[in-house]
Amino acid sequence: MNIVRRIEVAEMAGVSEATVSRVLNGVGPIKEETRQRVLAAADRLGYTPNAMARSLARRRSGNLGVVMPYLPKARLFSAHYFSEILSGIGSRAREEGYDLLIVFRDSDGATDVEGLFRMQKIDACLILGAKEEAGERETLRRIQEKRYPFCLINQHFAGESFNEVDADHKEGSYQAVRHLLEQGFRRIAFVNGPEAYSNSSDRRAGYERALREAGMLVEPDLLFAGNFSRTSGLRVAEELAGCMDRIDSIFAANDRMAIGIQQGLRLAGVLPEHMPAIVGYDDSDAAEMTSPGLSSVRVPFYELGEMAAAQVLRLLEEPEKAEGNSPFKVKLPVELVVRASSTKKLPKD
Amino acid sequence: MNIVRRIEVAEMAGVSEATVSRVLNGVGPIKEETRQRVLAAADRLGYTPNAMARSLARRRSGNLGVVMPYLPKARLFSAHYFSEILSGIGSRAREEGYDLLIVFRDSDGATDVEGLFRMQKIDACLILGAKEEAGERETLRRIQEKRYPFCLINQHFAGESFNEVDADHKEGSYQAVRHLLEQGFRRIAFVNGPEAYSNSSDRRAGYERALREAGMLVEPDLLFAGNFSRTSGLRVAEELAGCMDRIDSIFAANDRMAIGIQQGLRLAGVLPEHMPAIVGYDDSDAAEMTSPGLSSVRVPFYELGEMAAAQVLRLLEEPEKAEGNSPFKVKLPVELVVRASSTKKLPKD
């Protein structure tokens, strides 16, 4: 194996590690003088041409692919979820000397990741917005078989050996619901996202566990379905407004739905003093800024992006580690942030 | 010229225009069956191979480059400014069948755009975060000379024939300051960003024009310098707190600085009833959510991104229009949004 490390070459040449990578991998534009200095340092330190060649063989484009879902007019980059993850990815990619190739899914959600690799448009790939659907699992298996380096972010597939960086949404949801139970709430409506996301099934598992531990059963008429959008929260609020006598609190699977629900209930004439307790999820900026503050589960989105980028780029630098090794399955911890929306007094019966 | 248009090919083949582009330009992965259908439709309609070849010669990577500034730990994608512009760019790029190649500037702000074109990593380029600096103008002139298609977003260079999509910040700043004057304020502190940005010089021009029209002089001791960050607003607030007897209102060149100033003045012990009137700029989400609401100038960032992408991609589709034509210089209108921060009563002398 290679004992001399990139950072030593960088220090001797007086450049950043990113610059060393760019020179040695022949990606990206670079000043000729800098290039010569890096090559001389690599040569003097015996940073082996072998390792360089192996690396070069894997790093052709200098691009880290990022597959994004796409919704027309959704201002995707402005969503807390994506902007934070991308900031984390971008930070790490830049440090490693990679550019980001952002690829949008087709309107049916599909994307030909294999083609991106085959056409050498990307060297590695981070996949956002994956879900349990006919084609998706097959696509991922295929690029896995071909040993193209990729990592799923915030989604996992049971029974597969994909690289996955996720947050512990089972635990986060469990904490959220247990918090409501501790406040004395008993009829907790659960507004979840689409079931095809592991995000949603994890949240449901956490909800069920908290109820179970409290000796309670899941009541099907307390389960509601949204799609993570604020609009879907508004829609669910119409249903909720019709059964306010049956519920005393709400756990919504993300903040946008929670805020939509609050708005919808107000529109339906529910007075502030009768507003059910509510906990959202994601701890977006809006959770803090809305009034009353929205209790929510903080997810380290930036760190998810940063870690996934670091892991997948390490596979490129040290391909020997990728061969035959077990995949990395990371679950970062989350944290319940309690604000006024879930701590008010119980409404009178 | 070519009479049959892409949309007709798309309709006959039963696919999107984006798919037609991808097939005819040989970029991006595509199902073989779809490819055949598009080629057959193009053939039947006489969508000329000539035009295709010309287009192909110019569109090699299928990537639209986006040059971004970079600040470590700044969570760039989470900033209202960048996330909105990128959402606009992404929306249009996807419709046209392009992926986005996000390229970060070096720590000294430089980026070798020419190299990106030369290495065919991008077909066209949108440039964010440009400013009046030694190397930048030269770099842009060079890619201009080589006829590589690019467009600056939210920055303009006097005396150059670069393509530029900007917003009318002179007018926006003029409106903001006139609004303060109309409220009876006379000692208006102006907290601007770095002078190397045309953004800053435009704001200053608007500030000066409003004062001039009111028969007032610019007082140098009312001018303060930040760098568009909230932290710089906090810093300026320390200076402002020391001269509250000299000022009755503040115009800050963006919302983040305005919010930093408000926080800083509170930290310095300024009571709510003595808080000077303040107007920010950008109309970010925070302006609406902060309390009291922050008056601000709304900038159509999404539309800036969308329009710049549309213009620069049109140069690729219709290169004959690019030759010898005058550059496009767009200034989109902005709008003052008045909230509570600037409408309270004048403080007593």
Automatic annotation (TrEMBL), chains A, B:
Every HTH lacI-type domain range: 4-58
Any Pfam family the entry gives: LacI
Entry's Gene Ontology molecular function annotations: DNA binding
InterPro entries cross-referenced by the UniProt entry: HTH_LacI, LacI/GalR-like_sensor, Lambda_DNA-bd_dom_sf, Peripla_BP_I
Keywords of this entry: DNA-binding, Repressor, Transcription, Transcription regulation
Species for this entry: Paenibacillus medicaginis
Gene3D superfamilies documented for this protein: 3.40.50.2300, lambda repressor-like DNA-binding domains (1.10.260.40)
PANTHER family attached to this UniProt entry: HTH-TYPE TRANSCRIPTIONAL REPRESSOR PURR-RELATED, LACI-RELATED TRANSCRIPTIONAL REPRESSOR
Name of protein: LacI family DNA-binding transcriptional regulator
